[in-house]
TrEMBL record:
It comes from Lentinula detonsa. GO terms for biological process: protein secretion; vesicle-mediated transport. This is Golgi apparatus membrane protein TVP23. Its main location: Golgi. It is a multi-pass membrane protein. Golgi membrane protein involved in vesicular trafficking. Residues 1-54 are annotated as: Disordered.
């Protein structure tokens, strides 16, 4: 190698690069080519979310009956009342027999009235009332209540009072609808339903107030050892407070 020869001229070049033919961007995709799968984050528990807390597990109708101490009494309390309203509302669409629908509604109302006063009220909240006539012919109400040391189940008590006050409001709205639609034939049924429902609501309200007053008398009757004057003062204060709350 001569000294004057440049170094670059003595290096043999690599193999010539192979020129690629065609255009990748213009190549047609195969009809059987599989489309790419794009993974996107989703929440699969939106439609069927499982209960994660105790409150979620105990919610709903099934949870109410599970927590109830007397589920059968609670079931029939709502069964008779819902059935009476349902038959009254849909009877005009199912049959033209006015007598049949009226008899069915009246029978359900009577069964609900007896069940609520004699079974549901006594079992669910420990209350009972009835009207009694003495030897002189005077009529008066008698109230019975459960021993305060045995409180009612909270779910049973809550659902009982809801049924006692909600259904009279529903029948009142149906009475307004009947009057506006001039459905005079159905007004007597609604009035009978209101009489039955309001009788139970008023009776159990007074029975509950009487039970609370007697409980207050029994608790503070002795004045917690403060003597007769202290007992009278505390008893009067508690009775006045109970009277303002429930009277």
């Amino acid at each position: 190698m001569s000294v004057s020869t440049p170094l670059l001229d003595t290096i043999e070049p690599d193999e010539p690069p192979v020129k690629l033919s065609g255009n990748i961007s213009s190549a047609k995709a195969s009809p059987n080519a599989r489309k790419p799968v794009v993974l996107t984050p989703t929440n699969r528990t939106q439609g069927s979310q499982m209960a994660t807390t105790q409150s979620d597990a105990e919610s709903g109708i099934a949870g109410i009956f599970r927590q109830s101490a007397h589920p059968m009494a609670l079931f029939f309390l709502y069964f008779f009342r819902i059935s009476a309203i349902t038959i009254y509302v849909i009877s005009g669409f199912l049959t033209d027999n006015y007598v049949l629908s009226t008899v069915m509604v009246v029978v359900l109302l009577a069964m609900d009235f007896w069940n609520c006063r004699n079974v549901s009220g006594r079992t669910l909240v420990g209350l009972r009332f009835w009207n009694q006539v003495d030897d002189d012919g005077e009529s008066y109400w008698v109230f019975e209540s459960r021993d305060p040391s045995r409180p009612a189940n909270s779910i049973d008590s809550k659902m009982f009072w809801i049924a006692l006050y909600v259904f009279p409001a529903l029948w009142t709205s149906l009475l307004v609808v009947s009057i506006l639609k001039l459905g005079l034939a159905f007004i007597p049924i609604v009035i009978l339903a209101l009489v039955f429902n309001l009788a139970n609501a008023i009776g159990f309200t007074y029975a509950d107030r009487d039970a609370k007053q007697r409980w207050a008398n029994s608790v503070v009757g002795g004045g917690w050892g403060l003597g007769s004057l202290g007992g009278q003062l505390i008893t009067g204060a508690v009775q006045k407070g109970v009277g303002r709350m429930f009277g």
